[in-house]
Amino acid sequence: MIMKRGLLMIFLFGTLTSFKNQSDNFNINSPDGKVNLKISSINKKLNYQVKWAGQEMLGLSKLAIFPGGDLTIIDSKITEYNKTWKPVWEQFSSINNHYQQLELGIVSNKVKGKLYARVYDEGVAFRFVLQKGNKPKTANFYCTYNLPKGSNYFAPNGENEPIGPLQLSGLDDFQKAGNKGGSRKAIPVPLVVETPNHSFAALLESDLFVAKGFKNMNIDLDQNKIVSNNEASLTDDELISPWRVIVLGKTAGDLVVNTLTQNLATPCQIENTDWIKPGKTLWDWRVHGYIAPDGFKYGVNTESYMRFIDFAAAKDIDYFLIDDEWYTKVTKGHFEMSDKLDLQKVISYAKQKKVKLMLYYDIKHGEFGDDELFPYYQLLGMKGIKYGFMGPNVPFTEEAISKSAVNKLLIDFHDSPVPMTGVHRTYPNAISREYCHGQQDSRKAFTPEAFIKMALINAITGPLDMNNGNFDLLGINAGKREKGPKELNSYFSTVSSEAARTLIIFSGLVCIPDAPEAYAAKADLFEFVQKLPVGKWDESRILNSKMGDYITTARRHGKEWFIGSVYNQKGGTLNINLDFLDANQKYDVTYYEDTKETNCKTNPESYQVRQGTVKKGDVIKAVLAPGGGHCMWIRAAK
């Protein structure tokens, strides 16, 4: 594989208007004219304001690369860019990148550079670039957000339910709860804002991968003002900051299918991407201890893994992910293999069955060394690595992504990684990451309400590894697994909801965590999961969304539509309007849904599958049980 040389930072295309030293006030509009960005210099400090459809979304707010330092504007120009590009895999098969850009020549702290401000129909973004030469030792990409009074705020919260809705005082209390040692807790990105007029915004960053020297973005509350920071260590080389992004949406769901962060990311840096194959994977970790109907007990052993491989081959599941305990000890350049299984036999069997393997590595067990790790995985014939417990370390994450790409390995980051928004455009081998609460982990968050919040908050940052799709809910809640739950009867979902969740959460690697026999026992329901063309979507829409209450996601592949809905513990009816279907075309539809008896706590495995026909303009009244789900597979009638 040949890696492209350099990282292309910026495209300029279209009509150009230039002017120098005419004003310290600039107005720039989105292509559709609805988003207005005003940038001004007041007392040698840079400020900005954002309006959307005439409504003020952000009042006068500050923008700096050296907070407290003076900034002088020395020249400016405006460009327009409009081009469509095709991602390797995404929620869309093609993405239009259309914006107006203001480029300001600046001097701050005696350092020359540029500020790039882009205005899209869906939001705005800022990036600083400092010229090569002598600089101070540190910089800080500093931004304030003067949001409408009375707004509600939501944000990720690790392996806990996302926070919100909170007012500013509630955010302050969240931060005061703090980390160990009493320090204030930073607010993770994205911070989602619901304004009093029920518009939505998300505050986050993109293209951190190319911003060498920068830490990931944190959000804080300072004297009742929301601020964000990216600290950076400077050298004499050119400095490129991440993009600071403000995404706008009429609904919470609009933020999830917004393509702004992907458009801002550096284009793909892998020359040949033919080896990058998104898909579904089986996973062994949460199945350990499960006793199959024939009496076989799953664990870390060769026969268990061969059973997984057999099922994957039979159901056209692309991958099988082998988690921890295949080794016992790690030293530099060496794994001490577990005597519980014959890994080479498993590898040979998977190759025979044409099932691709992924293998876990936990850095807590010892330092193998990344220079040796990725070539070793490639030598084993692995197609990907699940990298565990690396922590929110930006340089480490960047190196792991690029080194895995050199060795033609997909990479899935486990447990509290850097979100690295947009990186799956730059390095599409970065297939997923657990920037959320994964199924059956600490169990502090897995309620229907928490899932819906994560689907509308955490997912804004890009593909997630959440491990949805458990079908043996009664067995899991009864404790018939070695790896959870820690608290019995604490997992509230329905099997229809579990199927819907595999579609709702966008990922390049949909990891389904249950036993093959659990799926085989509900083969008619598993059909929905089996048919999903993961990572090959032509179009994605959020049809219904309300934070913590419900979500409906629709994704198209060719002429097929897959639709999934989930509801909170109250349950309810959702209207699913099929106005996006082609006219003059009849469609067959399969419904996978709850029954009248279904309940996420008392009867989670009751479901029904039925057939029907639909056409453009039909409105499906989907009835969802408490904590329940609803799925539709729509295809052109034969």
UniProtKB/TrEMBL annotation:
Glycosyl-hydrolase 97 C-terminal oligomerisation domain residues: 536-634
Keyword Flavoprotein: no
Keyword match Hydrolase: yes
SUPFAM superfamilies cross-referenced by the UniProt entry: (Trans)glycosidases
Cofactor(s) recorded in Swiss-Prot or TrEMBL: Ca(2+)
Keywords: Calcium, Glycosidase, Hydrolase
Assigned EC number: 3.2.1.20
Record GO terms (molecular function): alpha-1,4-glucosidase activity; carbohydrate binding
Parts of the chain that traverse the membrane: none
One Pfam family of this chain: Glyco_hydro_97
UniProt domain Glycosyl-hydrolase 97 N-terminal: residue ranges: 28-267
Residue ranges of domain Glycosyl-hydrolase 97 catalytic in the record: 292-434
Enzyme class: hydrolase
Subunit structure comment from the entry: Monomer.
Protein's name in the database: Maltodextrin glucosidase
Organism of this sequence: Arcticibacter svalbardensis MN12-7
Organism taxonomic ancestry: Bacteria, Pseudomonadati, Bacteroidota, Sphingobacteriia, Sphingobacteriales
